[in-house]
Design brief:
Chain A has 316 residues and is mainly alpha-helical. Chain A has 13 helices and two strands, in the order ααααααββααααααα. Chain A has one domain: ABC transporter involved in vitamin B12 uptake, BtuC (Orthogonal Bundle), CATH 1.10.3470. In chain A, strands 1-2 form a two-stranded antiparallel ribbon. Chain A starts with a helix and ends in a 13-residue tail after the last helix. Chain B has 13 helices and 14 strands. Chain B has 411 residues and is α/β, with parallel strands linked by helices. In chain B, β2, α4 and β3 form a beta-alpha-beta unit. The longest helix of chain B has 26 residues. Chain B folds into two domains: 149 residues, 3-Layer(aba) Sandwich (Rossmann fold), CATH 3.40.50; 156 residues, 3-Layer(aba) Sandwich (Rossmann fold). Chain B has a six-stranded parallel sheet with strand order 3-2-4-5-6-13, with helices on both faces. The chains are: A mainly alpha (316), B alpha/beta (411). Chains A and B meet through α2, α5, α10, α12 and α13 of A and α1, α4, β8, α9 and α10 of B.
Chain lengths: 316, 411
């Protein structure tokens, strides 16, 4: 919680600024609409957090989201009865892509950066080849309910977000979370102290794949089938995680802060939009955030020497 | 060693960010999303920016003469068979092609800008089917430039070495492809369609009326249907792309003359989720929006859903002849219009090439009719068994393989 404080402060300021520009934001419906819009990115950021804190990257989530939405539309093709089987298939496909990313990274020792970049290209190429550039088919109403519908004024995205968020926090408090952080902090030490490093990392990648599947279900539901739905999401997710103070390279940062980072990023975009700033600035803003956040992290570190008795020689 | 680790991370992230942005620019060409003929826009616009209507300054791509010509063409009756609009031409100035006359069978070649969006996909399938109709075409060689100018330049050079009898070009961009087309003109008869080039060396240039007519059709509909003083939201894909700028600049002229209030001109990147979010934001801010103008129909359904999800009636709106929009229109009884940039224009270059090789006259500027879908003719264009991203004005219904090859189902 302590780690999440700075980002929460920034978030509060941004939310206040939005409320000033748009009083409707303070009403439950307005705020819920904002949460609904933020939900996919927050879930993706939680998934990305697991990978980042273990010292890796997952760049494949954006094209995985696109692939899942396009596949869902083609398989469902407007047929209501296909909704649930396809939903299950999407979850399995997300986990599977994560598994492949994880296995290639850990067992073949290919840097995750390369593995997931390759996966990004493979997936986007495969989607293009399969669709020939234009998605076919249509999502069923049942499928779209998750991203579009709701219980009265409460959009389904919000309870889904809360459950996913709670699960992520719970996971990080369980043994898995501690071993994951230890792995990211110092893989060697973690391995020597009995952590099954490979297994932990593979699981982190699978969680990221799962989060992409859930995000795809919400995004596809929100606005329907599109071949651009996942474009740039991997960077939004990484930006959100970094914005939450999670250190690229692993070992430090909390999942709550990562998710708060995603809400903050979404709030920032909403604010820019409210003040009529062009959408083209979004990528610039993300770029600046990534550089600034990592630079800030790197500058702070030398000021905090941690002299410990007896390990002067071990310090690097 | 936290510090080097972080530095490496920054570097790697930046590298990929750069690579991805670059990739995004080449694979997702905004021009291709809606593809429209590009008038060689070089002269400064003479249109005046009327700030009062909220439309901002006039686009630097605006050319008054082209605007006037396109708007006039809308009311002219095209010549040619009425049931085959892809063979019709508006006010054609026929030219003699006897010097290209040649005995068959023929080898036709095609340099395609891209097939990376639904519009081009439908068109490309239609063109292939048209080729299949003609026995005298012995060989059809097509190269896809994948939205890259440099690839298309080498594609055109490569095709010249393949012994083509005629070369069809759908240029990726106007200015950059001009020298390549000029070079090809010396060797084979060249037919250009969709976007133009800055040379008159091709035998014929085929295009529908154009972007000004598209934008004006939609804006005039709103000016008629939305009560005076009504708030109109204009949604555009991207700024600075000539083929989209013409659509908006024509709409701007119409809105400036009308009594409508344009409360926002927003860019959607052609993204459905973003479109829906933008419309939702405007509904929150303004309470109500009385009309929606769009420079392309791909995200029209997303805009409509924003009204539905907010529990508001959908105001007058324009889309395009895409199946999902037409279906929504019929199902919910929208007040709507759909200007088109017909995909049937992909049939015409093949027909033109054969005419040229047989020494028959063709129009120097082949302006195809550009119909709009209205509530009266909607039933004729709506084909319930076609996929959501199909373009209704494909002119492909009589071609072999319809509807399966276009992704449709036989009912």
């Amino acid at each position: 919680m302590k780690r999440a404080l700075p980002i929460l402060a920034v978030l509060v300021v941004l939310l206040a600024a939005i409320a000033i520009a748009n009083p409707f934001f303070l009403e439950p419906a307005g705020f819920l609409a904002f949460l609904k819009r933020a939900a996919p990115l927050v879930i993706l950021a939680a998934g990305q957090y697991f990978v980042v804190v273990s010292g890796e990257f997952d760049l494949s989530v954006g094209s995985l989201v696109t692939a899942e939405v396009v596949i869902a539309a083609r398989l469902i093709d407007g047929d209501e009865s296909a909704t649930w089987p396809v939903l299950a298939l999407l979850i399995v496909a997300g986990l599977l892509v994560g598994l492949v990313n994880g296995v290639l990274t850990t067992k073949l020792r290919v840097p995750s950066f390369i593995v997931t970049l390759g996966m990004l290209l493979v997936l986007s190429g495969a989607v293009f080849l399969w669709t020939g550039g234009a998605p076919r088919g249509a999502l069923s109403e049942g499928f779209r309910t998750f991203g579009r519908g709701g219980l009265g004024t409460l959009p389904w995205s919000v309870p889904i977000l809360l459950v996913a968020g709670a699960a992520a926090i719970w996971l990080m408090r369980a043994d898995f979370g501690r071993t994951l952080k230890a792995t990211g902090d110092n893989e060697r030490a973690a391995a020597l102290s009995g952590v099954r490093v490979d297994r932990v990392k593979i699981f982190a990648f699978m969680l990221s794949g799962l989060s992409a599947a859930v995000a795809a279900i919400l995004l596809g539901g929100f606005a329907g089938v599109s071949a651009q739905v996942g474009q740039g999401l991997e960077f939004s997710a990484i930006t959100a995680v970094v914005l939450g103070g999670v250190v690229l390279g692993g070992g430090r940062g909390s999942v709550l802060a990562a998710m708060a980072g995603a809400v903050t990023l979404e709030a920032l975009f909403t604010l820019l939009n409210l003040y009529g700033v062009s959408g083209a600035l979004e990528s610039t803003v993300q770029g600046v955030i990534i550089i600034a956040a990592v630079a800030a992290g790197a500058i702070r570190l030398p000021r905090k020497p941690t002299p410990r008795r007896g390990d002067a020689h071990a310090a690097s | 060693m936290p510090r080097p680790k972080a530095a490496v991370a920054v570097l790697t992230v930046l590298t990929v960010l750069g690579a991805l942005v670059a990739a995004g620019c080449t694979t997702d060409k905004p021009t291709a999303t809606t593809s429209s003929a590009a008038p060689a826009a070089s002269d400064q616009a003479s249109g005046t920016g009327d700030q009062a209507s909220g439309t901002g300054a006039q686009s630097k791509f605006f050319v008054q003469a082209d605007f006037d010509a396109q708007l006039a063409m809308r009311s002219q009756t095209p010549e040619g068979p009425a049931n085959k609009p892809w063979e019709q031409a508006i006010a054609p100035k026929m030219i003699d092609t006897a010097r290209y006359k040649k005995d068959g069978p023929y080898h036709l070649c095609f340099s395609n800008a891209a097939v990376n969006n639904p519009w081009r996909q439908v068109g490309w399938k239609t063109m292939q089917a048209e080729v299949g109709l003609h026995e005298e075409i012995e060989k059809f060689t097509a190269l896809d430039a994948e939205g890259k100018d440099d690839k298309q330049i080498s594609d055109i050079a490569e095709l010249q070495a393949k012994g083509c009898d005629a070369l069809i070009v759908s240029p990726n961009t106007t200015a950059t492809l001009t020298p390549a087309v000029k070079a090809a003109c010396g060797k084979v008869p060249v037919i250009v369609f969709d976007r133009g080039v800055e040379t008159d060396c091709p035998v014929t240039f085929i295009k529908p009326i154009g972007g000004y007519a598209f934008g004006a059709d939609a804006a005039e509909f709103l000016a008629e249907k939305v009560p005076a003083g009504g708030k109109v939201l204009a949604l555009r894909i991207l700024p600075g792309v000539d083929v989209l700028e013409t659509r908006w600049s024509a709409a701007k002229v119409v809105f400036d003359r009308s009594r409508l209030q344009v409360v926002g001109v927003e860019f959607t990147d052609g993204d459905a989720a973003k479109t829906k979010s933008i419309v939702s934001d405007y509904l929150q801010r303004h309470g109500t929006i009385d009309g929606v103008w769009m420079d392309a129909g791909a995200t029209a359904v997303a805009a409509i859903e924003a009204f539905e999800d907010a529990g508001l009636p959908v105001p007058p709106i324009n889309g395009e002849d895409q199946q999902d929009f037409l279906q929504k229109w019929k199902d919910t009884g929208l007040t709507a219009v759909a200007p088109t940039y017909p995909t049937y224009q992909w049939r015409t270059p093949v027909i033109a090439a054969l005419k040229i090789l047989k020494g028959e006259e063709v129009p120097e500027m082949w302006n195809l009719p550009q119909p709009k879908v209205t509530s009266e003719n909607l039933p004729a264009y709506l084909k319930p068994n076609m996929p959501p991203l199909h373009y209704a004005l494909c002119g492909c219904e009589d071609l072999p393989g319809f509807p399966e090859n276009w992704g449709g189902k036989r009912s």
